[in-house]
Amino acid sequence: MALEIKPAESCRYGCISLGEIMLRLDPGEGRVRNAREFKVWEGGGEYNVTRALRRCFGLETAVVTSFADNDVGRLVEDFILQGGVDTRFIKWVPYDGVGRTVRNGLNFTERGYGLRAALGISDRGNSAASQLKAGDIDWEEIFGKYGARWFHTGGIFAALSETTPAVIEEAVKTAKKHGTIVSYDLNYRASLWKSIGGKEKAVEVNRRLAPYIDVMIGNEEDFTAALGFEVKGMDENISSIKIDSYRNMIAYAVEKFPNFKVIATTLRTVKTALINDWGAICYHDGEFHEAAHRENLEILDRVGGGDSFASGLIYGFLTFNDPAKAVEYGAAHGALAMTTPGDTSMANLKEVEHLVQGGGARVKR
Length: 365
Fold this sequence. Notes:
alpha/beta; UDP-N-acetylmuramoyl-L-alanine:D-glutamate ligase; four-stranded mixed β-sheet; 15 strands
């Protein structure tokens, strides 16, 4: 048994996540600076995971977040409800009519094309989620009364304000008390940490939270910037060297934080905005498990690919409790999610299993 996961019948939820959910405005093939219309979606690093676990993998999930109670907040709620994620733990905050004291976060996102990279422009200052503080959420009710097999949060929510790390700490302590597996995606975003202390603050916060984490997820930048690790070879663009450097990084992480039962990371080489090499590696109990490596993967929208990897990984553990299977499900789901627009996955379990089993893109009739 890889992880000590509570039985499904003992919990209301397969997974609960904590994080901000924004309204994403997408200019399609154009640029934000020249757009005359946008498509809108919902999205957020932590939420994307529970949404996919519900819609793609069929698990009961819920989200913990906060919204200003206006029509923008209710629009995002409507998206969440369409995704089947339970909204009972959302904290609604009265809106002042202008947004001086509280508002809902927006995220303008360009997909990128060719040599033009994807671009994200956040407009989320003073958001309701960023103002959450310790004591606002009844975690004892969530994990004690309802119960969850898995809890997921991450470095994006931790970076939103001076108070959000304390919310995470309160949540993970209570989750651990009730035997819930805790995963954390480092998801380093320089733009979020910039105004509150930069990399030094990111390292301080994430190292404070790391001792409570069972499953740590992140890429090379996440581990070096968000946890302050220095690992040689991370800049090499040669797959074999890169994989060796990841192994070194993971070994270093386990030495520093022996509570990490699983460490998982995607292996991505960006050739253009549309063409990436894609794979993943997962560490558990002294062994490394590598997913099938997919070269020249064609990308429509890369935003949310890492979150979809995380949800597939979590599903693999909750269903099989097998790190080798879990990393394959994560890599396959992440690959599929990047073939459709928006932050959230549009894949289904049958498609993921087809890819895990070595299937290709031959037309299905």
